[in-house]
């Protein structure tokens, strides 16, 4: 976790990233123009072009910005109970509870699905997605390993379980977006928590259900 | 399962669907032109336009064709042991073992991810994806319910578990494609089978691991 320090961004770059988030929610990835981003803050298109040569550069920087935001919150939780940490991570990734509201979170994830679909054709996206995935994977696996060390979780393979958790979360998002059906994420969340309680949490320890 | 009869397609339409599959593998969704499809079989573009007005129509028909292919194989398995049926479905969806070879399966899934990302903007795709999802969901839930009825599986909520399974499979595919990392599907498969054995299969019954 230690080798991913928040990138050193200027205030303008931070403003561009926040504007990119809003523009992605509003217009989606395919219709994300520099004008659409410039419209979301009080600078001109020239400022965008000064900082980022191409849309691909800007989007790759934006993916890094998402990682920094995730990492900033993951750090806060670091000394909490592993059960709570795991549940917090799953909740955030499945429902974006840190986002202003859930509906804008799904607008955003809809745009992100298009960016993901572009990764096989855009090395800069793939590299940054791999870095983000690696960080989240390490966070989940580390949380599971802590729980095992503390005797709260049964013996398990933290790496493999983290892969399962990230697959499940990503697929719930994808299916929810493709089908426009909130039941997908709701049911997946319930089943995942039931799974944690049945398989991961040692008999006698409290389950994950709040 | 009974209300999804294979669509009544002409030989030409079947040939167009097979050519679409090959063209998607080769060119991806963004570069899927009628010429690219026509190049994959011995007809002209005019034949394509005669059968399908637009690229969207053709792709929606193609999604239906995928459902028919899935349904044709799902029927064969219907009287097998629920453990085997579940494993067969998971294997097929995760590794495309019915496909000619696994590498072309991932080329195909890469193209399909782009089609999925388009679903929020193309009602015909979303509707057909919903029908396909519903059928696979029913197949998985029905298999789990059969296992429970036969006393092989523990008591569980088949619908919710099916949602979990489909989320997990879809996310493993998405992450594997985005990251270009076969370990994602391999580890997810192992963890899912471990999960089935730990949670679903009743003590004393044989597990799913072959």
What is the CATH architecture annotation of the largest domain in chain A?
Orthogonal Bundle
Q: How many domains make up the coordinates of chain A?
A: 2
Oligomer: homodimer
Average pLDDT for all residues of chain A: 88
InterPro entries (chains A, B): BetI_C (IPR039538), Homeodomain-like_sf (IPR009057), HTH-type_TetR-like_transc_reg (IPR050109), HTH_TetR (IPR001647), Tet_transcr_reg_TetR-rel_C_sf (IPR036271)
Protein name (chains A, B): DNA binding protein putative transcriptional regulator
Pfam families (chains A, B): TetR_C_6, TetR_N
Keywords (chains A, B): DNA-binding, Repressor, Transcription, Transcription regulation
Task: Sum up the structure in keywords.
homodimer; 210 residues; mainly alpha; Arc Repressor Mutant, subunit A; Tetracycline Repressor, domain 2; 9 helices; DNA-binding transcription factor activity (chains A, B); transcription cis-regulatory region binding (chains A, B); BetI_C (chains A, B)
What does this protein look like?
The structure is a homodimer of 210-residue chains. By secondary structure, the first copy, chain A, is an all-alpha fold. The first copy, chain A, folds into 2 domains: 8-52, Arc Repressor Mutant, subunit A; 71-200, Orthogonal Bundle (Tetracycline Repressor, domain 2), CATH 1.10.357. Helices cover 71% and strands 0% of the residues of chain A. The mean pLDDT of chain A is 88.
Topology overview:
2 copies of one chain form a homodimer.
Chain A: H1 11-27, H2 34-38, H3 45-51, H4 55-76, H5 82-95, H6 102-118, H7 123-149, H8 158-179, H9 182-200
